[in-house]
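To: structure subgroup
Subject: Chain for Friday's discussion

All,

I'm putting the inputs and outputs inline so they're searchable in the archive.
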Amino acid sequence: MRTEQIVILSPREIEKMRKAGRLAAQLLQHLEPMVKPGVSTQKLNDEAEKWTKAHGAISAPLGYKGFPKSICTSVNEVICHGIPNPRQILREGDIINIDVTPIVDGYHGDTSKTFIVGSAKPSTQKLVEVTEKCLYLGIGEVKPGAKIGDIGAAIQEYAEAQGFSVVREFVGHGISNVFHTSPDIPHFGTRGKGKKLRPGMVFTIEPMINEGTHESEMLSDGWTAVTRDRKLSAQFEHTIAVTEDGVEILTLPE
């Protein structure tokens, strides 16, 4: 259940978030060499689960509201929450977002990255590059006194200028020793609108950018969200903390 109150984390709690975030980033680094044609999304899941346990952590997605796997693997037209499957085999030119959230000492490190499988056509490459830039443009707006709408506006302006669209139904979120809390962080919006950012706020920014329409559909499994027109979708995510003078990315490998 999402709590409505925005929690301000103490320096001690932010240090715990830093440790969890670092492990999450290292997990993505560990999985990256496995992302190649012929590998199943289930194999990525199994390796992530094994590595997470070996590092003394727990996979937050596993069993969360009934989610059946340890990571999310969202391939091509899947926007988010793709379920790893032994029959889903990566092919040359696919894109896959891998979303990981290890829990370390009770705190969550949440990050994701879209990988290109082998090589892809220029339009696919552009989508992935624009999506990653959208994440950093959003992060660049974060500082004390800024508004949540500033983040979404920066992302939306750039994505749409590049000919892409921004998913509306799924947003960033507050995170701590709870997986999803307030505030919601939309990746679209209006500058100067929304709640004011304060030091100690910790949340994810995770833009999902589509090649075609921003509209989505939910598959019958109740988790997998896909683009309505079945064109490609890409996503990048960091967990960040608002500092006294700006922002710190908590999900970096070092």
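Points worth raising on Friday:
The mean pLDDT is 97.
The first helix runs from residue 11 to 31.

D.
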